[in-house]
Amino acid sequence: MPLNKFCFRVASLCTALKKVFSASKSFSSAKMNSFRSSVWDPLELVSQMICMQTVFYTAESAALIVYSLTGFTPTLAHIFTAKALREMVVVQFIASVACGVALRYVVQRAKQCLDFSCTIHAFHLLFVIIFNHAIPTNLLWWAVQIGSIAQNGDIALVEDRTPIFCERLSWYMPV
C-alpha cells in the first residue's frame, strides 16, 4: 500500500475516532480565544497523538521488516535502543518521513505539526527510558532524535511553502 494511501486511512481512522468521542461526549468545550473557529477538544488531541504514535512505530516496524530482508534480525530492543545503531538511524529517518507525511493529514494545522513531532519523540524518549531503565547518553542518539523532529516539521510544512499563483498578474508570489 502506498504511503499516502496509508496516511489517508490513518487520518480517516482518526476522524472516525473523533466522531465517536464527540458523539459520546457529555461535556461542552469552551471556544478558544483565537482566530480558529474550531472548539478546543482534548479528546481530539489525544486521538491525534495516539494516531501519530501508531504511525511512528508502524513505520519503524515496517522499515525493520524490509531491512530484515538483508539478513538483519530485528528485535523489540532495536526500536527502543538508547544507542544510535547504524540500522536504527536509517529506520528512524524512514519513520520520520512517514510521520511527516501523516502529520499533514492527521493534524491539518501547520503550526501544530512541530508540536506533534516533539510529542512523538518525547513519548519515544519516555518509552526508551522505561525499556532501558536509563536516560540515553549517546550524543548521536540525541542528534538523530533532533534531526527527526526537524525533518517531521519540515515535511509537514512543505505544503505551506508552495507559492501562490496570482492569475491576474500571472506571476508567483512567495508565501
From TrEMBL:
Membrane topology note: Multi-pass membrane protein
Keyword terms: Golgi apparatus, Membrane, Protein transport, Transmembrane, Transmembrane helix, Transport
GO cellular component, one term: Golgi membrane
Subcellular location: Golgi apparatus membrane
InterPro entries given in the database record: Integral_membrane_SYS1-rel
Top-level taxon in the UniProt lineage: Eukaryota
Entries under Pfam families matching the protein: SYS1
Name the UniProt record assigns to this protein: Uncharacterized protein
Species name: Cylicocyclus nassatus
